[in-house]
């Protein structure tokens, strides 16, 4: 039986070769799909890394197909084309395109935590260098930053996908900057402190003026105490280079001034006050009224008896005189 004519055989060969090429492409596409799936399920790659790897694999497929066409055009036979999906350089590139992370999940977490710590350290350094903040305010802001860092690290530890962890870090890196809140400008700080010192001084001067327990000399001493403290406090405030130094001057001109004044005025109250000589009022001496003792009562009774006796004798003689006058008549 005669074979097919040559033209027919050539057509069949071309069809077979085309079929083989199509199958090779489908095989390559399947391998790319599997590789892409592996990439997508790799929790330790970022989205950007996944996209780059998948693009590299797609490029490898295109290269492989183009090379297959070239091989066919150059007279390569069906077995050669059919072997492309299994062992060609292009397929190796596809399989090599999926490169897992070079670091373990623990190492990745440590790297992300280090980024957060580094950013937090920079912000806390800015807080420490901020002359508009007092020591207590700096401590409070740095504590807030530390708390934020701890919360962010806890979020990272609770995630499994590297991209999710990376998203948390990227959002967190700018947040510490917002936790640094500058205070008032130094000029405004100083103005407020001077006003508070003047207010306290005026209050104490009013107390001194209205204190009736103090002599004028003592009041003058107290006025001078206030003036000296105010001058020293204002000088300290005006020379201050940061909020803490301003606060120290303010404390001296208010809290310490009040304490010094209270101590001084209590000492003055305890001092012996000078007194004017007392006016001696002359007294009229009167006979003392003796108490009614038993002896005086006895003397009083004797006097009464004597009076009665005198009266009795006088009556006797008077009666004799009257009788004699009657006899003479």
TrEMBL record:
Name the UniProt record assigns to this protein: Extracellular matrix binding protein
Any Pfam family matching the protein: DUF1542
Domain of life: Bacteria
Lineage of the species this protein comes from: Bacteria, Bacillati, Bacillota, Bacilli, Lactobacillales
InterPro entries: DUF1542
Location of the region described as Disordered in the Swiss-Prot/TrEMBL record: 1-22
Domain DUF1542: 190-254
Biased composition (Basic and acidic residues): 1-15
